[in-house]
Design brief:
Blueprint lengths: L2 H14 L7 E4 L7 H6 L7 E2 L14 H10 L2 H10 L4 E3 L4 E4 L4 H14 L2 E4 L16
Parallel strand pairs: 1-5
Antiparallel strand pairs: 2-4, 3-4
Length: 140
């Protein structure tokens, strides 16, 4: 996970929990919102790994402390809890990776987008960046 991915995960976790206090617009440069997520999920949508969170930073070479700090804020157990909060059942495969039951991204994306509509979250696609301002967070 890159730092931008962790930042987006934190934002989306808060959005899912209804804890985003400001109106938020998530922009996707793809033709439809979440398309890259769906494409990534074709191979089974590996959400995370089940190994102890203490081991994750070892995978990031010189940036281990940075990742240790980030993963304290949102780690593998948080990701699993987030998926479960959306009504998505998960399981650990023989590889030790965590997958949504059925290994499909579409159900997870649908549940996520439904949760957005309950809060102050809007989504837009096709590279429509008209909502972007100097205070925007752009995650590529």
């Amino acid at each position: 996970m890159r730092a931008a991915e962790v930042a987006s995960a934190l934002l989306l976790r808060d959005a899912t929990a209804g804890e985003v206090k400001a109106a938020t617009v998530l922009c996707d440069a793809q033709g439809s919102f979440g398309r890259k997520f769906l494409i990534a999920g074709r191979g089974g949508l590996n959400l995370t790994h089940s190994e102890p969170v203490e081991n994750f930073p070892d995978r990031y070479g010189a940036e281990q402390e940075r990742w240790r700090d980030l993963l304290e804020k949102f780690g593998p157990a948080d990701l699993e809890q987030w998926a479960n909060s959306l009504g998505i059942e998960t399981y650990v495969g023989s590889s030790g990776r965590l997958f949504p039951r059925g290994q499909k991204a579409a159900g997870l994306l649908r549940a996520w987008l439904e949760r957005f509509t309950m809060g102050q979250i809007q989504t837009t696609a096709s590279g429509d960046q008209k909502f972007a301002t100097k205070r925007s967070l752009r995650i590529a």
